[in-house]
Amino acid sequence: MRSMDAAKISFAVAVLFLAGCAGLFRPSRSLPDVPGNELLRRIQDHTGRLQTFQGIARMTVATSEASFAGTFSVSVKAPDSLWIKVEGPLGIDMLTLAVGGDRILMYSPWQQAAFRGSLGKVRKSGMLPVDLDSSDIVFGFLGLWNPKPETADSVLSVRSENGQYVLAFENGGEVWIEPKGPVVKRWIKKDGNGETEWVWEGEAYRRRDDLWLPAIVRIFRPTPRQRITLQYESMSANNSMKSSWFDVRIPEGVQTLEW
What we know:
Blueprint: H1 2-25, H2 36-47, E1 52-63, E2 67-77, E3 81-87, E4 93-100, E5 103-108, E6 113-118, H3 119-124, H4 134-142, E7 155-161, E8 164-169, E9 174-178, E10 183-190, E11 196-208, E12 211-222, E13 225-237, E14 255-258
Parallel strand pairs: 6-14
Antiparallel strand pairs: 1-2, 1-13, 2-3, 3-4, 4-5, 5-6, 7-8, 8-9, 9-10, 10-11, 11-12, 12-13
């Protein structure tokens, strides 16, 4: 019996080894040349299929000073309406936030305070990368990219690398594009001085309706040092949502501060 088991194990190892070798020595097929503006158009077409999204993810936030782990619930109506709820350990409510256009409303139960105002003022406060608008936030949390029309003007070159297209921009930023979808797998965003503002990555893509969405999203900011990871446990796209999906319930007596 033991010799039979050993034979089975040896056979399995051999099959795995040969499969690995086949992949190792199979010549990689080069990608066809595609202009940068055409790649951007395909990305826009893919992102444009999104109408609604709902998901629940495990969320971790790590900074140079502290770390946090909790549950992240999100609902979206494209292109610029977003509702988020963050719960800490044991289901403790930490934050509920709604963004629509340039308006933002946030309620923090643990601070017993609510904040209402302009998203532009929030950007200036340094809480968000300075050039992010509501649609950037919406698509960023979902693992989609919606390049603006002027983006094509700043494309410096296009190359293929490990089966993906890489768009290089004039300021040194780069975007890795997986042809299937197509979807963005990695995005290094740089400022006017060529310094990295943040790095976005998507992994484990799943098909939802007519979209490819990553089950894992990572966002890293070097200054101040911050890393956010979302691991979606459930997600759906282009389904109808309740009329109350955008509500932020603020208890009576809670002070609302204007931004």
